[in-house]
Amino acid sequence: MTGQARRLAAGGRIDRSRPVSFRFDGRTYSGFDGDTLASALLANGVALVGRSFKYHRPRGIYSAGIEEPNALVTLRGEGRHEPNIPATRVELFDGLEAQSQNRWPSLRHDVMSVVGHFPKAFAAGFYYKTFMGPTRRAWMFYEHFIRKAAGMGDPTSAPDPDRYEKAHAFCDLLVVGAGPAGLAAAIAAGRSGLRVILVEDDAEPGGSLLGRRDGAVADWLKRALAELDTLASVRVMTRTCVFGAYDGMTFGLLERVGDHLAVPAPFQPRQRYWRVRAERAILATGMIERPIVFGNNDLPGVMLAAAARSYVNRFAVLPGRRVVVFTNNDSAYGAAEDLRAAGAAVSIVDVRAVISEALRARTAEAGIEVLSGCAVGRANGRRTVTSVDIVPFDARRPEAARTRKRVSCDLLAVSGGWTPTLHLLAQRGCKPVYDSHRAMLVAADVPEGFHLAGGAAGETALRSCIESGLAAARAAVQACGQAPHVSARPPVEPLAADAEEAAIAPVWTIPAPLDGRAGKMFVDLQHDVGADDIALAHREGYASVEHLKRYTTLGMATDQGKTSSLNALAILAGLSGRAIGEVGTTTFRPPFRPIAVGALAGQETGLHFRPIRRSPMHDWHDQQGAALTTTGLWLRPWYFPEPGETRRDAYARESAAVRRSVGLTDVSSLGKIDVQGPDAAEFLNRVYVNGFLKLPVGKARYGVMLRPDGIVLDDGTVSRISDHHYFMTTTTAGAGKVMAHLEFLLQTAWPDLRVHVTSVTSQWAGMAVSGPKSRDLLARVVEGTDLSEAALPFMGVMHGHAGDVPVRILRVSFSGERAYEVYTPAGYGMALWQMFCDRGAALDLTVYGVEALGALRIEKGHVAGPELDGRTTLADVGLARMASGGKPFLGGALAKREGLGDASRPQLVGLELANGAGTLRAGAILCDPAARYRKAFAKDSAVLSDHAPDPSAVDFTAANGSGHLGHGIGFVSSVTWSPELQRNIALGFVSGGSSRIGEEIDAVFPLRSELTKVRVTPPHFVDPEGVRLHA
Amino acid sequence: MPEPRSALASTYTVGAFGLKQEPAAVVLRECTPRCLIQLSGWPDSFGSICERITSHLAVRVPVDCLTASAHDDVTIFRVGPTRLWFVCDGDSGRRLRDFFAAFGATDAVVTEIDHSRTVIRVRGPEARTLLNRGLPIDLENGAFPEHVFVQSVIHHVPVLVHRLPSQTDPVFELYVPREYAVTFWEWLTEAAAPLGGRVEGTEA
Question: Are B4 and A613 an interchain contact pair (Cβ–Cβ within 8 Å)?
Answer without folding.
Answer: no
